[in-house]
Specification:
four-stranded antiparallel sheet, three-stranded antiparallel sheet, 16 helices, globular, 536 residues, single chain, Glycosyltransferase, 15 strands, disordered N terminus, alpha+beta
């Protein structure tokens, strides 16, 4: 979900206080709701419809155009451009290909009821079902011919995992199933979960990619494409795959999907790096849980963002499930070290185990205390920014909020976040009041009154449509047109630590299945897991 766990970076720590305020303002919530001009509601729906027509005009065989993940004939040369004919398209499945566009279309249907938007969104889901390979995974790259034939130009035996190659299509199919009830989407998602389960490491982790044509001791363990034999935190390889397993269990009730998840809790400690107070993690590890390089800049060193983006969520999950204080301790230790070495500009790209700040480049370390040894910017290209400390993907406030929750009531407080509010009706009333206030906010109205245009930036074209979707979502919440259970599902689960206390429209991948997540029968939660062993 993407990497969705890292996308929603505001926790629900203040829900109790907010609920008290909501209760006091009960008469201010939907009281002014009737004052919303019906023309504004119609205008918002019309803009979402315009977005749908824009997507439809550029789509190829039902596949929305994504500026980063799709290419058509006539564009500047790109990998495999020789295979793309006029009327065809190349699709790169990183981040699910056109998942973000399809999810916007399906969410547009959710708030407007426009069946045209539903058909468009399901069109991409249908293509994902068609493109799924026999073993149950999606290849990295597809070519779609003018007649609609879909084929794989390379590596049809490699399961690419990181960057949401499997998880993003998986969750979009669940969204399609949730809205349509068509079992083919559910079945395709389960087939993918079965494949992902079959290539999971014994210690619970997943690699960046898995080569189905080789055994663990054939070929190189790592390459420029990432680690093949070992486990990876990088770009959600393990985090997103674990969420797939939890959802597959919730869908089917089959405990097989949970069999190895308990090992991830121990893997956090087995992969920790650092001497003394230094506490960090590399992005990827080999068969023996030793840090290993991938691309020329992804050296076997501490990458500070790995703690914030992936290790902290895992530690919080397992603390909630086990109440084992070592998970709280690792959260504090990781946070304390990063806070201690913070510079005005942020943090270095990497650190050695003794805490020396470095930057990996062409398979060697560049030291920040020896800037004269760095290549010129013209050589480093886009990576030249690394000569400066940065805060990119380093929002420590997320961990600070987790620690605040833990300080208040230890593991019990995290368990309450996962399970959602105990009094569903009271919480639902609070959500409805908050949605009503947002829907009647004059500043929101001024934004919604504008006409949507795609502009020159196709990425921004999709980002901007969510303003209209969120507005109509709030209207429907305030009018009690969504069930309280549906809203609670959107703010429950293991991504709860990184989601808002108010059910957001944008977080479409939350609440796709209903489950008591704390009751997931994950075995070996309290045991030290064995070292990684070969799959075959």
């Amino acid at each position: 979900m993407i990497n969705r766990i890292a996308l929603f970076l505001v926790t629900g720590l203040l829900w109790i206080a907010a609920f008290g305020q909501n209760s006091r303002n009960a008469n201010k919530g939907t009281a002014g709701f009737a004052a919303i001009d019906p023309a504004l509601l119609h205008h918002a729906a019309k803009q979402i419809g315009a977005y749908g027509r824009f997507i439809a005009a550029e789509a190829v065989h039902g596949i929305p155009r994504n500026p980063a993940r799709t290419r058509i004939s006539g564009e500047e040369p790109f990998p495999f451009s020789q295979h793309v004919q006029p009327g065809g398209i190349k699709v790169d499945l990183a981040n699910g290909g056109a998942v973000v566009q399809a999810a916007a279309l399906l969410s547009g249907f959710l708030v407007t009821g426009d069946s045209t938007l539903l058909r468009q969104g399901l069109g991409y889901a249908d293509w994902l079902v068609q493109a799924q390979l026999e073993r149950g995974f999606w290849a990295q790259t597809y070519i779609v011919d003018p007649d609609g034939r879909t084929w794989v130009p390379w590596l049809d035996y490699v399961v690419r995992i990181q960057d949401g190659h499997q998880s993003e299509p998986f969750f979009l199919l669940l969204y399609a199933y949730r809205l349509s009830g068509n079992l083919k989407y559910r079945d395709a998602a389960v087939r993918n979960a079965d494949l992902m389960l079959s290539i999971q490491n014994d210690n619970g982790s997943w690699p960046d990619e898995y080569d189905l044509s080789l055994t663990s001791f054939q070929g190189a363990w790592t390459s420029q494409r990432g680690v093949r034999v070992g486990g990876s935190y990088n770009d959600g390889a393990t985090t997103n795959s674990a969420m797939q397993m939890l959802h597959a269990w919730a869908l089917t009730g089959d405990g097989k999907y949970l069999a190895k998840l308990g090992g991830i809790g121990q893997w956090i400690f087995d992969t920790r790096l650092g001497k003394g107070a230094v506490c960090g993690w590399c992005q990827q590890y080999d068969y023996y849980n030793q840090p290993i390089q991938a691309r020329h800049f992804e050296m076997p060193a501490i990458e500070p963002r790995t703690f914030v983006r992936f290790v902290a969520p895992h530690a919080a999950w397992f603390y909630a499930l086990t109440a084992d204080e070592r998970y709280a301790d690792i959260l504090r230790q990781g946070y304390d070290w990063l806070k201690a070495i913070e510079k005005p500009g942020g943090w270095a790209y990497q650190y050695l185990e003794d805490g020396t700040p470095v930057c990996g480049w062409q398979f060697r370390y560049l030291r920040y205390d020896a800037p004269q040894t760095w290549p010129p910017d013209s050589v480093m290209g886009g990576h030249a920014e690394w000569r400066h400390f940065t805060r990119t993907n380093m929002n420590l406030s997320t961990v600070e909020r987790l620690l605040a929750v833990i300080t208040a009531a230890k593991a019990d407080s995290l368990r309450k976040l996962i399970s959602g509010p105990e009094n569903q009706q009271a919480a639902c009333t609070a959500w409805q009041l908050t949605a009503g206030r947002r829907a009647t906010d004059p500043q929101v109205h001024a934004k919604i009154a504008r006409k949507w245009t795609p502009g020159n930036d196709r990425k921004q074209a999709t980002n901007s449509i969510w303003d209209y979707i969120q507005f109509l979502f709030d209207v429907r919440v305030a009018k009690k047109e969504f069930s309280c259970q549906m809203l609670q599902d959107r703010v429950s689960g293991f991504n709860r630590f990184f989601s808002t206390e108010q059910p957001p429209a944008l977080n479409w991948s939350a609440g796709l299945v209903h489950a008591n997540w704390l009751e997931a029968p994950i075995p070996n939660l309290h045991e030290r897991m064995p070292r990684l062993r070969p799959q075959r």
